[in-house]
Amino acid sequence: MSKLNDNTLAYVADYFKALAEPTRLKMLNALQDGEKNVGQLTEVSGCSQANVSKHLSLLAQYGLVKRESRGTSVFYSIADPSVYKLCELVCDQVVNRLIQEADVKKLFMVG
Amino acid sequence: MSKLNDNTLAYVADYFKALAEPTRLKMLNALQDGEKNVGQLTEVSGCSQANVSKHLSLLAQYGLVKRESRGTSVFYSIADPSVYKLCELVCDQVVNRLIQEADVKKLFMVG
DNA sequence: TGACTATATAACTACATAGTAATATAGTGC
DNA sequence: GCACTATATTACTATGTAGTTATATAGTCA
Description:
Two copies of one chain form a homodimer. A three-stranded antiparallel sheet of chain A has the order 1-3-2. Helices cover about 65% and strands about 15% of the residues of chain A. By secondary structure, chain A is α+β, with helices and mostly antiparallel strands. The first copy, chain A, folds into two domains: about 1-80, Arc Repressor Mutant, subunit A; about 80-110. Chain A has helices at about 5-20, 20-30, 40-45, 50-60, 80-110; strands at about 35, 65-70, 75-80. At the A-B interface, helix 1, helix 2 and helix 5 of A face helix 1, helix 2 and helix 5 of B. The first copy, chain A, binds a DNA duplex (30 and 30 nucleotides) through helix 4.
């Protein structure tokens, strides 16, 4: 990573930005067990159809999902499953942090 | 990841958000070879001291860096080196994508 | 063709945040 | 105490974007 120029850093930051949104994570999460169309993703996410459509086009733009229209539906699927590795790593981080905070809290409650 | 509730998703999204900023990536990058104080990070990032300080407090808040003040200086260091794994994964993704785009471009230029 | 359904887009509002300039805080040494 | 340096914070502006509503586009079937 030490040789990254500003341009590449901007790309990487954009990639992270695509993941930095609960609704988009929820949709990626839903796509783990295979492709879904916009209607299904709208249902899963609990957002408006317009909003889902916008999120999906952003995810597609950054290469996180693939788009395929069949009939009147458009199906989206994960472009590269390695995105889940990222999420796992972050989940571990977050969980560890929460545990750590819980421990500290316990420490204070005892003392 | 399939069992994540909305609360946890928000945490994960926040973690990604902390990484979704070129300046912060640059600072994390600079911390790869050990701790640095705010002055050094200001120099590396090319931002104002106030701005660097804000970014650092955000990174500390999300548990990405550790803070230790010694004398009049405050030294920051990486809290968990696994953050670099994340960056590597994303870099690979980004690079692959750029290569793919370059190939497509070449295809069009030839044809 | 026209009615119907699925998806995308445009215009807009509200909110978050990156960056700046000025100021506050805190440690060091006289 | 005072001057000096390093870092943090405050108030502010400008920009980006999540979400909404309304509308446009495109495919299907009668």
